[in-house]
Design goal:
The chain is α+β, with helices and mostly antiparallel strands. It is about 25% helix and about 10% strand. It binds zinc ion.
């Protein structure tokens, strides 16, 4: 028997999870991916400075995001933060695309 909530395995005669107080099930359902987010790319930023500013605003607004730089060194985990001209793309979930694009444009001074 398994708890459908915390996925703990119990003996056959146990009916309820001691932690979650939910009824146990015989089989766990297929593990669903935690994040089914569709990520979309924002317009490319001309440098880390802008990326940092955008990221700060996104963080403040609780908008999930991740960045990707086109600099090959990032693949080797070497910081490229001091390199001028690194192009950085920020990805946000599709739902936040419009909002994030607006933020980005404001930071870049475009209206
Ligand atoms: Zn449980």
């Amino acid at each position: 028997m398994y708890c459908p909530k915390c996925r703990t395995e119990y003996l056959e005669d146990v009916k309820e999870c001691v932690d979650c107080h939910v009824l146990l099930v015989d089989d766990l359902p297929e593990e669903t991916p935690l994040e089914k987010i569709k990520w979309v790319a924002l317009p490319v930023l001309p440098g880390k400075v802008y990326a940092d500013m955008v990221e700060e605003v996104l963080s403040n607004m609780d908008i999930p995001h991740f960045t990707k730089s086109d600099w090959a060194t990032s693949a080797y985990n070497i910081s490229s933060s001091n390199l001028v001209g690194t192009k950085i793309t920020i990805f946000v979930p599709e739902d936040y695309h419009d909002e994030a694009t607006q933020i980005l444009n404001e930071i870049l001074g475009k209206k």
